[in-house]
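Forwarding the complex inputs:
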Amino acid sequence: MLQETSSPVAERELRASRLFKAPRPLVYKMWTEAEHIAKWWGPRGFTTTIQAMDVRPGGEWRFILHGPDGTDYPNHTVYEELAPPERLVLRHVSWPHHRMHIDFTEAEGGTRVKVHMVFESEADFQKVVLEYKADKGLRENLDRLEEHIASL
Amino acid sequence: MSDQLSSTFAALADPTRRAILARLALGETSVTELAEPFQMSMPAVSKHLKVLERAGLIARGREAQWRPCRLEAAPLKTIAEWVEEYRRFWEESFDRLGDYLAQIQNSNPQYKEKTDASGNK
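Prediction (whole assembly, two chains):
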């Protein structure tokens, strides 16, 4: 498996990208079929229970993420756009409201998946996250601040 | 927490306010001192400080004359944690998806052969 995702640069940006060593239709299928997505969705240690998965524009995807500590995170999402095997757009209805744009492109060695999360307060959010990175001085101060807090 | 987060974001969206925070990260200071590098009127600076204060990003002393401003770290830490959560979500979901794809391709060889309509291998 090819490992190459979220460079440190992307640390504070809500974009993620990864090259998967598999054909594009198969990778796309992993996102749109309940039996598959439940197998990998969520961080390690999490499991997913799919309550509803109506894969068509306007259809709902409801699921519960079960955290390793037993906490349940209910999620409510609506399919906005389905363009197999290229693109999938999901609108996250529960908080924090956002859209997930997922692009699948053929690449050397497999399929590249790019996720872009756009938050409803997009302007604010992007400004903050992007300019945070640009504003090195502030970031360093914040790092020191975090260290300080951690040491309290 | 969601309201806190959105007011923090809104407060941070302004470059002057971020510069004020950067200055305050170095230590507490008076409003007059804060205003100096920005070439702004005191009322304009006060306005920014009010936004920052409402967002919980700064606190101001109650001493009548001086009223020093200082940085309050908690909301910034919340943002950092929040972003980190998403980063981790995708990082680890992608790890799992990669493992899972390898697994189903090994157990179902036909998946390996399937290519896209465009015919690229």
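Confidence is low (pLDDT under 50) at residues 114-121 of chain B.
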